[in-house]
Amino acid sequence: MTISSKSNTARNRLAVNTIERAPEGIFWVRATGFFYQANEWFYRLLGYSEEELRALHVCDVAIDLEKAQWDVFWRQAGKPGGLRHEGGLATKLQESVIVEIRACLLPIDGDQLMCAFVRDLVDPHRETEPLLAELRASEARFRTLYNNTPVMLQACDHETRLYSANKYWLETLGYEWEEVKGRQTREFMTEASRDNVIHRVIPVLLESGSIHDFEYQMVKKNGQVLDVALTAVSERDSDGDIIRTLSMILPISDRKRAERLESQNVFLREELSGAADFAEIIGHSPPLQEVFQAIDMVAGTDATVLLLGETGTGKELAARAIHERSDRSKSVMITVNCAALQPNLVESELFGHEKGAFTGALTTKKGRFELADHSTIFLDEVGELSLEAQSKLLRVLQEQEVERVGGTETVGIDVRIIAATNRPLEVEVSKGNFRADLYYRLNIFPIRMPPLRDRIDDIPLLTNHFVDKFAQHIGKKIPNINRKVIEKLVSYPWPGNVRELANILERAVILCPGRTLQPQHIGVDAGVVQLDDDVPTLAESEYRLILRALEKCDGRLSGPKGAAAILGVNRSTLWSRMHKLGIDISRKIG
């Protein structure tokens, strides 16, 4: 053996010993995503043997990585600087460990392997072990409850891929978890139900964040069709886009519908307890004090209330305050955004339908008014209803009964009505756009929500509230606010009212690097720019832009060549904007 070959052998031994005794994990992966090799540290971390690990795909152990994302993961590792990722790995015993992974691509014998270095972010020698033990115990208790609840529970991501289902869900449909993990939830529906979900459930989730008692049909593994009722809540990011959706699904049996609705209401109260944008109406200015006095006077009665005011003034918060102070507060207030209802489904949504009333009506469905029986219904943006729908609403107000679409019998209801609009209804009446008799019925006790420019005294209080809220949400501490920030905010006319103030302060909190919010973090200017009449509004410009994008990609929303990609937004955001602007979703679906 030559001196050179002896030197190479020694270097190889040194490299092997270094890898095996390294104080962190090292593993190699093929382009297919399957493990190739790892060091002893990594085998110990996950509890797998070399043979067992080689049979696994990276996505089998990476908790937050789906196989559909593997190509993106691989390409990122091949870029200059490689890949850095923090996430969870599942051990052989199905415990989770939080790690940092740094990876790059290396050429090996004419092929490429991903070489990854793994660092456990939870050091067992730290004093956090008691907290981790408590966390694991809490997680175990939750898992026990989750899997032993006699209700079908499922969770899906923003692309409606299933990433969790409880034992009852699996047993009811006849599947093992490995058979359904990562599959689209629509794969477990009948074809007619898929269309209903696309055109009815998703728009409602995008608009309001939740849907109640939606009936559709699922398909079991053996092909048997199962009638079910869905209640779902979605979690959103700071841009308002859906991150994940948690659903409770109940097979429809001969049990009383009231029992089913009550169990759903309990579920929703728990899930939505912290979901409201604002915990309360903030302020002490004289105009707001008048609103408080009006709410106190009317809350204990069953009088119909009409909330008037510009967009963003807090009309829904006022409606909730009235309901919570009423004798009906033990039941959930049913909210309807009249502007978001599809024209051909308004009556079905409000008044319900009988089985077979129209194509896709596979089961009898209660409308929002029946669901609000013995409770309160909040009709937001009531001025957007068509004249035909207004006539039906007037009959409900007069008779306190509804007739389902396709039905022949009326159903008596006991419902307290709160309506809201940002339109001057008396002007709409004079133009023939709104029924005068309905207006008089709704206008029994009007409450006008003051715009923010009329309650300037509340801006310091609101500013402190929002800064604390948003700072806490992203883990920052901003205890100080420069007085010039308040001066700047007070001098602005606030066309978007409290909602605009909240949005501007959320952005300011993100931009603020220290413990004091400064004027440069506030993105407003005093005064309003006056535009010429021939300059299109922002909504008009957005409408045209979306239409051009849809035409360019033949109506497709998703995919690399879809309208969402062209416009630089995700699919759910685009869908929501189309819905808001009245672009026909059913004919523009991707």
TrEMBL record:
Positions of the PAS domain: 11-53, 138-209
Magnesium in keyword set: no
Domain PAC: 212-264
Example of a GO MF term: sequence-specific DNA binding
Keyword Repressor assigned: no
SUPFAM superfamilies assigned to the protein according to its UniProt record, in alphabetical order: Homeodomain-like, P-loop containing nucleoside triphosphate hydrolases, PYP-like sensor domain (PAS domain)
InterPro entries from the UniProt entry: AAA+_ATPase (IPR003593), AAA_lid_NorR (IPR058031), Homeodomain-like_sf (IPR009057), HTH_Fis (IPR002197), P-loop_NTPase (IPR027417), PAC (IPR001610), PAS (IPR000014), PAS-assoc_C (IPR000700)
Residue ranges of every copy of the Sigma-54 factor interaction domain listed in the record: 281-510
Pfam families attached to this UniProt entry: AAA_lid_14, HTH_8, PAS_9, Sigma54_activat
GO biological process: regulation of DNA-templated transcription
Superkingdom, taxonomy of origin: Bacteria
Keywords noted in UniProt: ATP-binding, DNA-binding, Nucleotide-binding, Transcription, Transcription regulation
NCBIfam families the record matches: sensory_box
PANTHER family reported for this sequence: PTS-DEPENDENT DIHYDROXYACETONE KINASE OPERON REGULATORY PROTEIN-RELATED, TRANSCRIPTIONAL REGULATORY PROTEIN
Name of the protein this chain belongs to: PAS domain-containing protein
